[in-house]
Amino acid sequence: NMAYGEDSWLNTDNGRDMQWNPDSVVFRPNASSIGAATLFGVTSVFGGKHYIYVLGHNNNGQYSIPMYDGDRVADSLFVNGVPASIYKGKVLGDIMWAGIPMLVQGHSILETDVTVRLRVAKPYDTGYGAPINGNSWRNNTPDNNNYPMYSFNTSGLAVETDNATAASNALRLINVVPNPYYAYSPYESDRLDTRVRITNLPPVCTISIFALNGTLITVINKNSPITYTDWTLKNQYGVPIASGMYLINVNVPNVGQRNLKWFGVMRPVDLNSY
User: Fold this and answer.
1) What does the pLDDT look like over 132-178, one tens digit per residue?
2) 99 Cβ contact list (under 8 Å, min separation 6)
């Protein structure tokens, strides 16, 4: 839990607007009229005295300050406590850190993404929550032990099936890699292996590969949940293709087709290792 304060006498330095907005003024000359003490002809204003307080969470019975409750307990003790001196003293006594940050001259508030980390060796205590029997702030069954909690929902994120528009748009994701092919691809396993990969495929489709003159080179029938298939750069008889441009047609039943152009340069067969 954190809190901040300001000096309401320092209206000129944003000390009376109930906002955390310090300025860069440290001293003002002869400014006793604002109600602050003047020493050696100057008055200490320290940017409007926008103090920052970081509260602890010690187990002090009915005066215990919980973790991460939006300062509700501290506010109730500080404002409504009777006698006031006891309740306010308990809140102020539970402050772990206090600082008086000021604006750097020539800069604006929060113009950078600087992160301040406060590290302690003592772990956070847990188990604080709503009052028990009206006289204790310890809750034996707190939500998540009063550690930070986050909520979300998946409304509108459910998987849609039989969505013709989405299926048609998915055809644009089908691709062949590498393209162009310069005698090598990362999918090959040895010097005699030649292959390229057709990616982002649906479970069922038919892939037809043609030469530019319309000759059918080979057909690959895919029927598996794997999202890709490999073409070994051979025709339907297992004969390696020649270098050049080829057309690849992917036909997805009840959805549509995707046509791709592919260019490949074949390498000579290397039998040096045999």
Assistant:
1) 455 445 556 667 766 667 778 888 887 777 777 888 888 999 999 99
2) 51, 52
Could you count the other beta carbons within 10 Å of the beta carbon of residue 84?
Answer: 12
Single-letter amino acid, residue 39? L
Q: pTM higher than 0.90, yes or no?
A: no
**205 is written with which tokens?**
């489709």
Tell me the DSSP string of the chain. Answer: -EEE---TT-GGGTTTSSS----S--EEET-GGGTS-EETTEEE-HHHH--EEEE-----GGGPPPSSSTTHHHHHHHHH-SSHHHHHHHHHHTEEEEE---PPTT--TT-S--------SSPPP--EEEEETTTEEE-SS-GGGG--------TT-SPP-S-HHHHHHHGGG-EEESSSEES--TT--STT---EEEES--SEEEEEEEETTS-EEEEEEEESS-S-EEE-SB-TTSPBPPSEEEEEEEEETTTEEEEEEEEEEPPPP--TT-
Question: Rounded to whole angstroms, how far apart are CA atoms 5 and 141?
Answer: 34
